[in-house]
Specification:
This protein has about 550 residues and is α+β, with helices and mostly antiparallel strands. The protein has 14 helices and 31 strands. The longest helix is centred in the middle third of the chain and has 17 residues. The chain starts with a helix and ends in a 6-residue tail after the last strand. The structure holds guanosine-5',3'-tetraphosphate.
Length: about 550
């Protein structure tokens, strides 16, 4: 074994890279903060949360975040725990989330799904879960806010199975009455963990008292009735519940489930330790040259996110790279697949809690931010010159919101086009042209409506262009082809005027309609038509 491969082996085993998927307010920010607290990366909880109300203007357009108190951008947090290096890729949590949220899920090896015990599975969780499920990555569940009244644990298990189609295996079980839980029973270790009352308002990590289940002190602390209820529940789970099967966890068919409360630190450490034990290390990735293993000594990675103007003083653009194989070294030269050029990676940045810092080395599973002079695009591969290949394309996430956009001042058309092109290249928006319409306006498609605000704000602040924007009443986009290969045009498509006929950037015909029902009509009346929810060449 070479020294490099020994080093890689050691570093890869340490790494866990994941994202938290949840609906807004389920407690993602609080849980992230508590994980950092247990990891020793922050000392008093509250530093991330307080940013929610008094955010620093890291970039111009984060003003939007400040005004609305939401997180638009995904950041990356890294901390060490128990010999492991953990990378958390944060996902924008507002319901107006964007394609960035989806793309972040392309760069992780597992996901943590946070569910509010009272609300159960909510809309955004469902959407994000679907993307994880398609990738077949392991999903871990943290049921949060157990200090609150909520649904019964058993009912939540049913809901997860019915709504998401994944079975769950409770790793621990709450002890106590609804909303007044005193601790958890750890099924794997057959131990009872009881928590003393939280006197620090969740600011400090809480250590649980650990007991053998039959220790008389347990009954004394929780009371006879609660003790009996716990025993009954566990018996039921052992007999009627799912069996634990690590293979099913790895393929995303079974989710290990943890109960806790991020705010009061109850069950958080138990979750973190269970997660680290089960979560996958960096995984191989499909490429044009087959699967690339992380311990391949030759460096490779891909761009999953591009963010412009994070620092208004420098007008910089950062490309976020997920390292997939080999060792990353500052100033190394790599082959950039899309341009076919060799480029030098000069200013790598990494993220520890809120701080950005220049780094010298990184390993598979890590994320580095690279200063981007405008060459990177979403999904780009960079790799060693001696082994050239391309990582599999990202899925296209179909836009669901559309607006007609044009510059208020026609004299500013040049800047307008430049800005729109830039945002399209960053992957923030998808661009269409209405059939038969002039060149002065575009139809812009996005996954979430927030992107329109970002578009307006950035065009104004970075390109000095005011725009008019008219939302269009469409929610479904379908790429069109005729079975016999003949061209689809507004004239050859029956019912084209029931929606809007547009062309994508490559000139492919696309129909925008208001709902699935309208789509059904088009299908019924054009039996020779093939519809696709992404371009046919993807
Ligand atoms: P998000 O990132 O998923 O949007 O959720 P976030 O962590 O911001 O939490 C949303 C709200 O839920 C916050 O309350 C937070 O304090 C609360 N919360 C998080 N974890 C728990 C928990 O375990 N138990 C209870 N009872 N509440 C929890 P807020 O009122 O919006 O903010 P704040 O006033 O607490 O700062």
């Amino acid at each position: 074994m070479s020294a490099l491969s020994e080093e890689l082996d050691k570093e890869i085993k340490k790494r866990r890279t994941f994202a938290i998927i949840s609906h807004p307010d389920a407690g993602k920010t609080t849980l992230t903060e508590k994980l950092l607290l247990y990891g020793g990366a922050i000392h008093l909880a509250g530093s991330i949360k307080s940013r929610k109300t008094q955010r620093h203007a890291v970039s111009d357009w984060m003003e939007i975040e400040k005004q609305r108190g939401i997180s638009v951008t995904s950041s990356v947090l890294q901390f060490d725990y128990d010999g492991c290096r953990i990378n958390i890729l944060d996902t924008p949590g507002h319901q107006d989330f964007s394609e960035d949220t989806y793309r972040t899920l392309m760069a992780v090896d597992s996901a943590v799904m946070v569910i509010d015990v009272a609300k159960g599975v909510e809309a955004q969780t469902k959407k994000l879960f679907k993307v994880c499920k398609q990738r077949g990555i392991p999903i871990f569940t943290f049921v949060n806010k157990l200090d609150h009244y909520g649904k019964l644990p058993i009912d939540l298990m049913d809901e997860i199975e019915n709504v998401l189609g994944i079975r769950s295996y409770p790793m621990n079980w709450p002890i106590g009455q609804d909303g007044q839980y005193m601790g958890v029973y750890d099924r794997r270790n057959d131990k009872v963990l009881l928590f003393a009352a939280d006197t620090t308002h969740g600011q400090q990590a809480r250590i649980a008292d650990v007991y053998e289940p039959d220790d008389p002190a347990v009954i004394e602390r929780v009371g006879e009735e609660t003790w009996q209820a716990l025993k009954d529940d566990i018996e039921l789970l052992d007999e009627a519940g799912e069996e634990f099967d690590m293979e099913k966890v790895n393929s995303g068919e079974l989710t290990p489930m943890f109960f806790g409360s991020a705010m009061t630190n109850f069950g958080v450490q138990d979750f973190l330790e269970g997660y680290i034990r089960m979560a996958p290390t960096p995984q191989p990735r499909m490429s044009s040259d087959g699967l690339i293993a992380p311990d391949d000594e030759k460096f490779s990675g891909f761009v999953f996110k591009i963010q412009a103007n994070m620092n208004p003083a420098h007008r910089d653009r950062l490309a976020f790279i997920r390292i997939c194989s080999g060792k990353f070294e500052r100033n190394m030269s790599v082959w950039h697949e899309r341009s076919g050029k060799i480029i030098k990676l000069a200013q790598p940045q990494q993220f520890l809690a809120q701080d950005r810092q220049i780094i010298d080395t990184a390993y598979p599973g890590d994320i580095v931010g690279l200063f981007d002079p405008g060459i990177f695009g979403i999904g780009d591969t960079i790799c060693d010159e001696s082994h050239k290949f391309k990582y599999a394309d990202f899925p296209v996430f179909p836009p669901e919101k559309f607006a007609r956009v044009q510059a208020k001042d026609t004299m500013k058309r040049k800047q307008f086009v430049k800005g729109i092109e830039q945002l399209t290249q960053e992957g923030a928006i998808q661009l269409f042209q209405q059939a038969g319409a002039g060149m002065e306006s575009y139809i812009v498609g996005t996954v979430g409506t927030l992107q329109f605000e970002v578009l307006e704000y950035r065009l104004k602040n970075e390109y000095n262009v005011d725009i008019t924007m008219n939302m269009q009443p469409y929610e479904v986009a379908r790429w069109l082809a005729f079975k016999d290969g003949s061209e689809v045009t507004p004239a050859s498509l029956r019912g084209a005027d029931r929606g809007m006929f547009v062309y994508d950037r490559k000139g492919n015909p696309v129909l925008l309609v208001s709902n699935e029902w309208a789509l059904g009509w088009i299908m019924d009346n054009n039996p020779d038509l093939i519809l696709n929810h992404v371009p046919f060449d993807r």
